[in-house]
Specification:
Elements: E1 2-3, H1 13-28, H2 34-39, E2 45-52, E3 56-57, H3 62-70, E4 75-79, E5 86-87, E6 92-99, H4 100-130, E7 137-139, H5 149-158, E8 172-174, H6 176-182, H7 185-195, E9 202-206, H8 209-218, E10 222-226, H9 230-240, E11 245-249, H10 257-262, E12 267-269, H11 272-275, E13 282-286
Helix pairs in contact: 1-3, 1-4, 3-4, 4-5, 6-7, 7-8, 8-9
Length: 290
């Protein structure tokens, strides 16, 4: 049994193929799969099931599909669930059949991607459920595995979370060090507003209520409240009075989510959902006698 959730945007195929090809090259090395060459006849065929061994949320099916496609002609991959689905232990996620050597060559790459991304989606779903019944949303950060950011942020969406900026070039986030060098909150914000195009969002980080007042006076519409306790967050929401979108960040743990949401902030950002997620246990098993 699995529960269908709202669909999420697809991953771009060129992005998927590039990552999968790099992973296949890393795993195959210069001589290919010695074990499969040594033990399996070139024309041997097999059928296998990709199944989940614990409950969780699936994310990243396009990556194992690409691994079995790009390894060479001779394999068929057919998914039986969709990204964002909640699945119980024992659920068959997909089936693959065809040339046995090719299947073994792509197996680990396929599993590494889907296990990792499904783990992120599963943890994100846990965080998102803590915020059910509130107007606050959980979102990620740029603390991601180098080279895997697009996929990890996709997994966050599969789990019901929202994405913060993807990189340094898609939004302006003025942090404490920028403020220190620029000469203060007002100076940093005014410089950013003069520089940014009309479609570029500007967010500014503040650490105190005094800095928040200064940011709002300068015209800030998105403010990151950094490492504030719950009482200070409540005061920040009251002070802002709807004039800006507020994001709480810094030291966010699962057990504190409800208390933070109760302060009235719009978003809670955390690196925990990408950097602390345990891989979901999925395995590929040959169907004997198929």
């Amino acid at each position: 049994m699995h529960i269908i959730t709202s669909p999420v945007a697809e991953l771009p195929r060129p992005l998927v193929d590039k990552a999968v090809l790099a992973a296949l090259e890393e795993d195959l090395g210069l001589a290919g799969d010695l074990t499969s060459q040594a033990t399996l006849p070139p024309q041997a065929t097999a059928a296998a099931v990709l199944s989940v061994r614990e409950a969780g949320v699936i994310a990243g099916l396009a990556l194992p599909a690409a691994a079995f496609r790009l390894i060479g002609d001779g394999l068929t991959f057919e998914a039986s669930v969709a990204d964002g689905d909640t699945v119980e232990a024992g659920t068959v996620v997909a089936r693959v059949w065809g040339n046995a050597r090719l299947m073994m060559m792509a197996e680990r790459v396929a599993l590494n991607f889907i296990n990792h991304l499904s783990g992120i989606a599963t943890l994100t779903r846990i965080y998102a459920r803590e915020l059910e019944g509130t107007s606050t949303r959980i979102c990620d950060t740029r603390k991601t595995t180098p080279g895997l950011r697009a996929f990890e942020k996709y997994a966050v969406r599969c789990g019901g979370g929202a994405n913060h900026r993807y990189a340094l070039d898609d939004a302006i986030l003025i942090k404490d060090n920028h403020i220190a060098v620029a000469g203060g909150v007002t100076a940093a914000f005014k410089a950013a507003r003069a520089f940014a195009g009309h479609l570029v969002a500007i967010e500014i980080e503040v650490e105190t209520l005094e800095q928040l007042e200064e940011a709002l006076a300068a015209g800030a519409k998105i403010v990151l409240l950094d490492n504030m306790d719950d009482a200070t967050l409540r005061k920040a929401v009251e002070l802002t009075a709807g004039r800006a979108t507020l994001e709480a960040s810094g030291g966010v743990k699962l057990e504190r989510l409800k208390a933070i949401a109760a302060t009235g902030v719009d978003y809670i950002s955390t690196s925990q959902i990408t950097m602390s997620a345990r891989p979901l246990d999925l395995g590929l098993d040959i169907e004997i006698g198929h």
